[in-house]
Amino acid sequence: MNRVLVVDDEPAMRTALEASFSHRGWKVETASGTHEALERFRSWPCPLVITDMRMPDGDGLKVMSGIRSLAPETAVIFLTAYGSVPEAVKAMKGGACDYLVKPISFEQLHEAAQRVLTVDPSRGAGRETEGGIIGDSVLMRRLMDRARQIARTDVDLLLEAESGTGKELLARMIHESSRRRNGPFVAVNCAAFPDTLLESELFGYMKGAFTGAASSHVGKFELAHKGTLLLDEISEMPLPLQPKLLRVLQQREVDRLGDRNPISIDVRVIATTNRDLALAVKEGTFRADLYYRLNVVALSIPPLRERRDDIPALIEYFIRKYSRGGTPVEFSPEIMECILAHDWPGNVRELENIVRRILALAIGPMAEVDLLEGTNLLKQEAVTAPLELSTSLQEMEKQMYLRALEETRGNRTHAAELLGVSVRTVRNKIREFGIPARRYV
User: Do the beta carbons of residue 190 and residue 231 sit within 8 Å?
Assistant: First the structure.
């Protein structure tokens, strides 16, 4: 079971974070300040600490310094309502694994926590191969050879692959294998921010730049100085912002909103997409000049259905990862047959979720095929009604989105992965089809 120490002086935030992580199966301890955090850590060491930046008896940097003196391998994630440049730079240079600005998304925080615990084997995630990418198939060996070669250069990179294939893992592996390994690795999801906020998130802004800008905010490009910036889902970047990104890539300087003086940056950019950007250029949703600037070097990660030889190793890894502290579970030949026959549209992420489901439902040391009931891995006779030609394409599309949301219990991110679209598209379709917002938030 993963363990985390949460440090925040706000009781409501501590309670919310404790409930969120406990709900996901984590063991959680909390502290209200720097002194209490270090005392708690001495008696209860753990692989991850999530700390607020500013507290009455000190700051998060003090917490991190104390934690590192006791356990250098412990990962630290900062939470703060103050995106100031000095704090951000100190945190990243001091070894912070991530830096999230309040208000935060609990799902985003949980993903960050899972991610940082897999960066170093000593933090409890146990990587099987270089960079944590598991696979010894011909396709994966070829990919890793190319990735190591690219890591020795400093060119920007485009990763094109389906959702769930491990684009961020590969990006991190390239960063860790490059000369920038001692610099920060900063990731931003271009689809996670409204169009009006993405620019300030990337480039930052000065105090008073617009209504509500009570303090200056450091942008992701500045945070990634001397390191690597991952622009996830680059295809979802709004068209008006794309020329500004192109200028940054060409000039290697950013203009904070409200600041007349450009800031020089030294950043390697890795962009990822699950869409065909060349097609997006033809459709007019992505600028051709930006595409050609990003596409100097490109890598494509093969989907899981094209490297089925890697599935047994992946299953073994996930069993070990999610069975810590419990009895190891073995998969029956019938389950393995179903798994190997499946096409895995959700790729490695879908396989991971299936393994977690099986482990959660398994009673004895052997997991039997009946644990796959209710999934699409079992070969079942079709029970759907014949298609009515009178059904409109719009209604068919609505039913498709409804089904995806039902299967993912309303999780828009997972529904988007199943459908092969962006989260923004799912949000727009919910509004377009009049699906009650309270149903899928």
Answer: yes
Residues 142 and 274 in one domain: yes
Do residues 269 and 203 share a domain? yes
Tens-place pLDDT, residues 150-170:
998 888 999 999 989 999 999
Residue among 262, 271, 265 nearest 290 (CA):
271
Q: Is residue 377 part of a domain?
A: no
Instruction: Write the CA distances from 28 to 6, 31, 47, integer angstroms.
Output: 7, 10, 11
Contact 411, 105 (CB under 8 A): no
Answer yes or no: do 165 and 271 share one domain: yes
Q: Which amino acid is at 374?
A: G
Question: At 156, which CATH number?
Answer: 3.40.50.300
The verdict on 172 and 99 lying in the same domain is: no
Sign of the CA dihedral running 328, 6, 201, 411: positive
109, 72, 270, 274: which is closest to 175 by C-alpha?
270
Q: Report how far residue 208's alpha carbon sits from residue 216's, in angstroms, rounded to the nearest whole number.
A: 8
Domain that holds residue 64: 3-123
Helix (H, G, I), strand (E, B) or coil at 414: helix
Provide the 8-state DSSP code for 284.
Answer: T
388 or 221: which leads in pLDDT: 221
Same domain, 165 and 32: no
pLDDT tens-digit profile of 258-308?
Answer: 888 889 999 999 999 998 999 999 999 999 999 999 988 899 999 999 999
The helix (H) or strand (E) run that includes residue 229 is strand 227-232
- Tens of pLDDT, residue by residue over 330-378, are 898 889 989 998 999 999 999 999 998 898 888 888 988 888 888 888 7
63 & 88 share domain: yes
189: which strand partners? Answer: 232
Give the global pTM: 0.63
| Amino acid symbol at 436 | P
CB 49 within 8 A of CB 67: yes
Mean pLDDT, the chain, as a whole number? 83
Nearest to 204 by CA among 262, 257, 251: 257
CATH of the domain at 84: 3.40.50.2300
